[in-house]
């Protein structure tokens, strides 16, 4: 079975287009705030900012960055044909920025006591990509 195989008749996986410029900058160690300023549509940049803020103990800041990356990702998913549900495979690297932002939002929401949002985002992550959900849980 492949990630593109659809056995249940549900929506096909959504595969976001590659964003080589912000990806390359992030991979080379450029500060994520510089990448987000130059490429504000990049969920990967916002997710990196959210992760950095969370690691530094700035949970509210992490929440704000994660929410921005999440909404930028939703915009990109809709533009790619996503209709509000269906697989967003982790195995497709351009999807990873959105999935990282979604995980960061779930984590930060839980940390500030937004239990409903924490649960909603955690379930959304698992519904979108079991692989990503398992990776972040482990």
Count of structural domains: 1
The beta-strand count equals 0
How much beta, percentage-wise?
under 5%
The SSE order reads HHHHHHH
Give average pLDDT, whole number.
95
Q: Residue share in helices? A: 55-70%
Q: How many strands, what sense, and barrel or not for the largest sheet?
A: none
- The stretches of 5 or more residues where confidence is low (pLDDT under 50) are none
Architecture blueprint of SSEs:
Blueprint (H helix, E strand, L loop, with lengths): L19 H8 L4 H7 L4 H13 L3 H21 L16 H16 L3 H14 L1 H8 L1
Helix pairs in contact: 2-3, 3-4, 3-5, 4-5, 5-6, 6-7
Short description:
This protein is mainly α.
Describe this structure in words.
With 138 residues, the protein is mainly α. The protein has helices at residues 20-27, 32-38, 43-55, 59-79, 96-111, 115-128, 130-137. The chain has one domain (29-137). It contains 7 helices and no strands.
